[in-house]
Amino acid sequence: MVQSDYREAEWRETIRQVRAVFNGPLTYNCDKYQEDRVAWWDAVDVISSSGYYPQGSWNEHLDRIEPVVKRHGKPFLFLEAGCPSRDGSQNLPNDWSLAGAPSPEAQLIYYRDMFTHTRERSWVGGFMLWDWPARLYREEDAALNTDYCIYAKPASAVVAAAYAAATAPSAESLPL
After folding, report:
1. Reported pTM
2. pLDDT value at position 137?
3. Domain count of the fold of the chain
4. Average pLDDT of the chain, as a whole number
5. What is the spatial order of strands in the sheet that 46-50 belongs to?
6. By C-alpha distance, which of 105, 114, 112, 91 is closest to 143?
7. What backbone torsions phi and psi does residue 81 show, to the nearest 5 degrees?
8. Is residue 176 part of a domain?
9. How does pLDDT run across 66-110, given as a tens digit for each residue?
10. Can you tell me the distance from the alpha carbon of 9 to that of 6, in angstroms, rounded to the nearest whole number?
11. Where in the sequence is the domain holding 128, given as residue range(s)?
């Protein structure tokens, strides 16, 4: 969809037509790194993004996104975010095909980093995490699973703590 972000007139017309038949909130989920390039955020109700940012770079990207959110005065969500549980994935979380041995630790590191940095930004309204398949692997196979799913993996405790907290958890409160 990145190449369609620049088709502002067509997006505005599409949104106008959708609003003619739908009265709920509308959003557009831009790809990572594109939040400050979409020129028609004013036409939707919620700004959203796929936040697959490498570990250690969250603050840089949040600093880039924040002025966009504040300028438009709209809610913001990450409609996609996550990290596979394989070696190196925390550095390339959007690379589905990255070769690497199973590493629940890489996934854990990523989620701790993501929640630690976003909890400091009150304008981040939440996350929809990728991926929870309809058919889960067996719990005893979790350590060998290299997918995005956090079921029975250490990252599940970090996600549970982040979602359970009335306010975003501090880094110290996230399980190791």
Report:
1. 0.89
2. 97
3. 1
4. 93
5. 27-30, 46-50, 76-81, 124-129
6. 105
7. -165, 150
8. no
9. 999 999 999 999 999 999 999 999 999 999 899 999 999 999 999
10. 9
11. 2-169
